[in-house]
Design a protein that fits this description.
Elements lengths: L1 H16 L6 H9 L9 H7 L6 E7 L7 E7 L8 E4 L12 H6 L3 E5 L2 H11 L2 H10 L9 H19 L6 H21 L15 E3 L3 E4 L3 E9 L6 E5 L2 E4 L4 E7 L4 E9 L8 E7 L27 E7 L12 H14 L8 E5 L5 H15 L6 E7 L2 E3 L6 E3 L9 H4 L1 E2 H11 L3 E7 L33 E5 L9 E2 L4 E2 H13 L7 E3 H18 L7 E3 L5 E4 L2
Helix pairs in contact: 5-7, 7-8, 10-12, 13-14
Length: about 550
């Protein structure tokens, strides 16, 4: 009897598959019986739904790398009830219309959706800016049984969801989650109460108006970009800047931003009916003058040369600790890190969402280990990602001189094993992730003396360092260190930077290109830094010689 039942069930499934146009009830039965489920090959899904001519496929640009895409599969049946399937992203192959089934075969179903608002909320949180714009402007809403208002709500909820991914530590995270949940619940109620698809209509066709000056000047690197929006009929107006979105409160918006160079900012306003304003371009001038910088020292400029195009295959972890909880200051370390953030973007070509910067108390032991053990694994693709690490702060050697440590903001110099992070631990974590290439910049020393010549040890014990700065370095690693192990890493008061960091960034601006071939090798950079750093240190009555561990002939950056 049991055997007969199984046979009957197989025949039932075969008959379903052969139906020219799978119905909602058929799809639901396949899902309920676990024939269609998450992780099922999208190639097999197409077969179960009747073939390529019986479905619609929408290719969606990936947020991380636009040439690789998600696939959205929608049955073409004209029905008020529909089921949608989102196929997971693929990082190995490009899309070819002639090989659709081959590509789909290498993808699995990521999720199954009955509600279009839930579907597009997820899509907007995953896909690129170009893909989001295409959907908002071109999507056939009737194919998805949704109104412009519903699509707009999904757009807002999706960007809020994306903001949480890019900024997990923001204080507003919980508030955003509540907003998203509220939007989702309202959409579900509307779906449940709707017997047939009737697009929501509004007589309002006018987009919100953004009121903000065309040209703004700030005398600080950290600034708030604030303005107002007006809309005659909508009570809910949202403002988007660079993929970040917030709801205007009493018609006002304010975004916290950071830049050390002039920038153009594009602002878009969206009302509850889905009306979108044209981009409002604001020219922001950063007029922050370092009064203490002498004329003989050239001001840092990360836009001096044109270099790498922004790439999703690059990741940067930047740490700057100037104000320690129980240790002397690492003078100018914060500014070093903030400046290097701009060089990571403009010189190395790292996208904003792939940069994590920790400053002062943000760089405590727990947060620093979290960045290494949680954030990096979420960003690094095995044998594909290029990783850049920058650390400006205190370093110390173990009492026996065999181990080198990086001191977090709350670290105790007398309890290094418990409160600090060893360099070898950092290298071991990174090695396990197997990135394609790793470049590390350490603006620190291990002599037990700060940039201002204050001792870091409570008992002022002398240090005997026997650790090898070159030991155990993998072939794909390049490590630039501010000084030899027994030297002091100095600060440069004239420029408000560490000497190493200042000349590192000047070198990256093209100054280190000794032969003028528009390429800077590791060897060229270390020669440039050693020449200038050692000279400046000698003027301060100190000795400081940067060091390189890695291939000196390897090209660090190329520029135009």
């Amino acid at each position: 009897m049991k055997k007969y039942f199984i046979y009957f069930y197989i025949l039932f499934i075969i008959n379903i598959v052969n139906i020219a146009n799978a119905s909602y009830e058929t799809e639901k039965a396949l899902i309920n019986n676990k024939v269609i489920k998450k992780k099922l090959s999208c190639n097999n899904l197409v077969g179960l739904l009747g073939g390529l001519n019986k479905i619609e496929i929408l290719w969606l640009g990936n947020l991380k790398q636009e040439k690789f895409q998600y696939a959205l599969i929608n049955t073409s049946a004209k029905s008020n009830k529909k089921i949608f399937y989102l196929c997971e992203n693929l990082y190995k192959k490009k899309i070819s219309s002639k090989k659709t089934m081959e590509v789909l075969n290498e993808r699995n179903i990521m999720d199954i959706y009955y509600n279009t608002t839930d579907l597009f909320t997820d899509i907007f949180s995953l896909t690129s800016k170009e893909s989001r714009n295409y959907i908002m402007s071109t999507l056939n809403l009737r194919s998805f049984n949704m109104s412009k208002n519903e699509l707009n709500k999904a757009y807002i909820a999706g960007l809020m969801k994306l903001n949480e991914k890019l900024n997990p530590d923001q204080e507003k995270k919980l508030a955003k989650k509540k907003k998203i949940k509220k939007i989702e619940n309202k959409s579900k109620e509307q779906t449940e109460n709707k017997q047939e698809f009737v697009p929501e209509k509004s007589t309002d066709k006018n987009p919100p108006k953004i009121i903000i000056a065309k040209n703004l000047t700030y005398n600080t690197y950290n600034y708030n970009l604030s303005g107002t929006v007006k809309d005659d009929t909508s009570n809910n107006v949202y403002v988007e800047i660079d993929g970040m979105i917030q709801q205007a409160v009493n018609g006002r918006f304010s975004f916290e931003r950071f830049s050390i160079v002039d920038e153009k900012v594009s602002i878009i306003a969206i009302d509850q009916w889905g009306n979108r304003s044209k981009p409002k371009i604001v020219n922001v001038k950063i007029d922050f003058i370092e009064k203490t910088v002498e004329q003989k020292l050239e001001k840092l400029n990360p836009l001096k040369i044109k270099t790498n195009i922004l790439s999703s295959d690059k990741v940067a972890l930047i740490i700057g600790i100037e104000n320690y909880s129980s240790n002397p200051k690492a003078t100018y370390a914060n500014l070093d890190a903030k400046y290097f953030y701009q060089y990571a973007k403009n010189i190395f070509g790292v996208k904003n969402e792939n940069i994590k910067i920790l400053i002062d108390n943000e760089a405590n032991l727990v947060s620093s280990l979290g960045a290494l053990n949680k954030w990096l694994p979420s960003k690094i693709k095995k044998k594909h990602t290029e990783l850049i690490i920058f650390f400006a702060g205190h370093g110390l050697a173990s009492p026996n001189g065999k181990e080198l440590y990086l001191l977090p903001q709350d670290g105790d110099s007398d309890l290094l094993e418990r409160t600090a992070i060893s360099r070898n631990e950092v290298f071991d974590i990174v090695k396990k992730l197997q990135p394609k290439k790793v470049t590390v910049f350490f603006d620190t020393c291990y002599s037990g003396v700060s940039r201002d010549e204050e001792t870091l040890m409570a008992d002022a014990r002398p240090l005997r360092i026997i650790a090898d700065d070159q030991e155990g370095i993998p072939d794909n690693f390049t490590i630039f260190s501010a000084s030899q192990l027994d030297q002091i890493s100095s600060g440069l008061k004239d420029a408000k930077h560490g000497i190493f960091s200042y000349y590192l960034m000047k070198g990256l601006e093209g100054n280190a290109d000794a032969n003028g071939d528009k390429k800077i090798t590791n060897g060229e950079l270390i020669v440039y830094m050693d020449t200038n750093v050692s000279q400046k240190a000698s003027e301060l009555g100190r000795q400081q010689n940067p060091s390189l561990a890695g291939d000196p002939d390897k090209v660090l950056i190329s520029y135009r």
